[in-house]
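Sanity check

After download, print the first record. It should look like this:
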Amino acid sequence: MKTCISDNNLMDAWRLKHSNEKRFTWQRLNPMCKSTLDYWFIPILLENNVAECQIITAPNTDHLAVKLKLSTSDVNRGKGVWKFNNSLLEDEQYTSQIDDLIKTCRNKYAMNILRTLLEYCHDVLLNVFFKHFLNVLYSRLKNVKKTFL
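Expected structure tokens:
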């Protein structure tokens, strides 16, 4: 077990939090025998994420449980990789559900998208119209100015 722990860069989460305590997760009274048989081995990289680790009673067993609580607030996640299971495309029930979902979303959001597009076009057209209007007005004013001079 030590070799496996070492080879995989693991550590005992309970021992990390309770380095000086002696606790056991299993015992027998006659003859008296105690042992730690239950562990949470975590990657060493998660050492700073162990918020809590306790030995607690467990129902319907002669062992005590090891309760582990990890903090995920400090975990920096990378970009990650997403893979699609292509075999789902051959599943008629799945593809039918996806088709229905797409239709529902399209119907639900189509009006919002159309409204946004129309508002954008309206703004662009007004912008173009006013620029054109101002250019025409400016050129006419220039001509009027020339006739009076």
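If your output differs, re-run the checksum step. Summary of this record's structure: The two ends are 103 Å apart (CA to CA).
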